[in-house]
Structures are given as C-alpha cells and as structure tokens.
C-alpha cells in the first residue's frame, strides 16, 4: 500500500468531490460516503500514472453516486411527503474553497437541488458536470459511458427543466433578510393580510417531515393555503417554548433556524421572485437536521 503521505493528491480534491456528490445526491452523509468510497478505491493508485487527477476522481465519484441513486429510488418513491435535500450549513466544505463558496452558492440552493431531484440520474449528472463544474462533453461521455451527443441531449433536457424553476434575478442580501423577517413576523402574528401581501398567487410550500414529525404531506399551493399553514404552525410554536430563533445562511440562502426545547432544530427558507415569495422550503425531518444543532 502507498504510504498515507502519498495520497495528499486525493485530499486536495476532497471538498470539490464532496460538492459533486452532494449536488448529485442531496444528502451530506451519502455524499461523504461516496467520496470516502472513492478514496478507498484509489488509495493504492500511484498519482504519477494519472494524467488528470480531478477528472479521474470526478469520474469515479459520479459513477458511485449513480449507483447510490439507483438503490435510493424506491426509498424516495415511498417517502412520506415531499423529499427535500439535507440542509448544508457550511457550503465551503462542499465547494473546494471559501472563494468558491460564494461563487457557487446559487448552485447549492434548496430550489435547485429540489429541481435536480425531478431529473433522471443521467440528466442530473450531465447537467451538473457541464453547467456547474464546467466539464467538457467528451469527459462526461466517458464518465457516463454514453455518446457526446447523448450527453448534450441529457444536459439540454435538464437545463430546460432547471431554468423554469430558478429565479430570474438574484435577490440582494438586504431584500432577502427583509422578506424573510417580514414573512416570519406575519406568520407569528397570524396576520393573513400581511402574509398574502408577501406571497405570490402561485406560491408553493414544501414541508419535509419524513413521516417522523408534523409537516404538510402534500405540496401546498396558493397564498391562502400557504399563509394559513404558516399561521397555524406558529400558533403551535407559541404553545411550546422554543430555545432559540436565529437567522443563518443555509445552502447559501438566509434561513430561519428554530431550535426547540427538545434540542430539535428545523429550517425555514424562502425563494423570492419579482418582489414576491414564490416558494417556501420547510425542512423538519430530524434525520436531516442533526448537523445544525
């Protein structure tokens, strides 16, 4: 076996590879497992025998992720309620560097990851490798064992779907905080008029409890239904003392983290388009929130 010091070439790419795996899988633990599995496969490989180390490792991790997605398909089909990705608190661990964390924050948003979940595994891989990680179709074809034309078509289908689900304009941090705080205050007060003024007519709420904690089993749409749900949730919160409310960035987006007296934390974030809240993401599944305490 090659001495540990000689696998630094792998460790130099670990964060980048975790970023690839997390975007493919939507869960931190599975992403870390995929990268560690890749490490176990290559630790006896002499680095001087590899022409392009990053491409070589990306190919291995992507194929491992595709295998995981195949085995996870039935589990997600049987999932209770909407399936949302596991929140990512420190995005720098999954981008490769602190500078890249800012540049790629949009590519870690819950909205994008949810859109990716609607794609086939091959569409997801083609889109991410080309549009997010700037990998050429020749290398993607080699990774997916498909023709270059096929990979282009896969990425194009994915791009069309993803584009329709992403905001057209980036929201400033000040507006992000203003809208989220106003939404939370209106929900806490049960102020339906204020809620409906903030929400788009076609707003959707996605609430993930995983069948383990109270959450909306179906996606809610329309500002009256979403507003009533949020007012009801905060009515329940008022009846149970919470340990802390704090605003922090999760998946690159300002979010409200509520830590309850039983040391359970949930995450609320919103998507803003043209001055209205168009999506509400409410992650409540305790299995996906253990890293946020």
Automatic annotation (TrEMBL):
Residues 10-72 form the RNA polymerase sigma-70 region domain. Residues 112-161 form the RNA polymerase sigma factor 70 region 4 type domain. One of its GO terms (biological process) is DNA-templated transcription initiation. Gene3D superfamilies: 1.10.1740.10, 3.10.450.50, Winged helix-like DNA-binding domain superfamily/Winged helix DNA-binding domain (1.10.10.10). GO terms for molecular function: DNA binding; sigma factor activity. InterPro entries: ECF_Sigma-70_Domain, NTF2-like_dom_sf, RNA_pol_sigma-70_dom, RNA_pol_sigma70_r2, RNA_pol_sigma70_r4_t2, RNA_pol_sigma_r2, RNA_pol_sigma_r3/r4-like, WH-like_DNA-bd_sf. Interacts transiently with the RNA polymerase catalytic core formed by RpoA, RpoB, RpoC and RpoZ (2 alpha, 1 beta, 1 beta' and 1 omega subunit) to form the RNA polymerase holoenzyme that can initiate transcription. This is RNA polymerase sigma-70 factor, ECF subfamily. It comes from Asticcacaulis taihuensis.
């Amino acid at each position: 076996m090659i001495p540990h010091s000689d696998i630094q070439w792998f460790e130099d790419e670990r964060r980048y590879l975790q970023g690839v795996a997390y975007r493919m899988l939507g869960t931190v633990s599975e992403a870390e497992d995929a990268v560690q599995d890749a490490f176990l496969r290559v630790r006896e490989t002499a680095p001087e025998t590899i022409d392009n180390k990053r491409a070589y490792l990306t190919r291995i991790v992507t194929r491992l992720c595709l295998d995981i997605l195949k085995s996870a398909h039935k589990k997600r089909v049987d999932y209770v309620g909407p399936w949302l990705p596991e929140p990512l608190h420190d995005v720098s661990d999954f981008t490769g560097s602190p500078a890249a964390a800012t540049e790629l924050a949009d590519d870690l948003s819950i909205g994008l990851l949810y859109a990716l979940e609607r794609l086939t595994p091959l569409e997801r891989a083609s889109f991410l490798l080309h549009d997010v990680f700037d990998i050429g179709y020749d290398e993607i074809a080699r990774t997916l064992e498909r023709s270059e034309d096929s990979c282009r078509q896969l990425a194009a289908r994915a791009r069309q779907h993803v584009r329709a689900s992403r905001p057209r304009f980036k929201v400033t941090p000040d507006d992000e905080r203003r809208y989220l705080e106003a939404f939370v205050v209106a929900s806490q007060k049960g102020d339906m008029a204020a809620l409906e003024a903030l929400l788009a007519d076609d707003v959707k709420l996605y609430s993930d409890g995983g069948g383990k904690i109270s959450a909306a089993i179906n996606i809610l749409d329309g500002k009256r239904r979403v507003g009533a749900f949020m007012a009801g949730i905060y009515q329940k919160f008022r009846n149970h003392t919470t340990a802390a409310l704090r605003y922090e960035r999760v998946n690159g987006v300002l979010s409200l983290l509520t830590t309850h007296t039983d040391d359970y934390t949930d995450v609320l974030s919103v998507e803003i388009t043209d001055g209205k809240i168009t999506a509400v993401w409410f992650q409540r599944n305790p299995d996906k929130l253990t890293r946020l305490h």
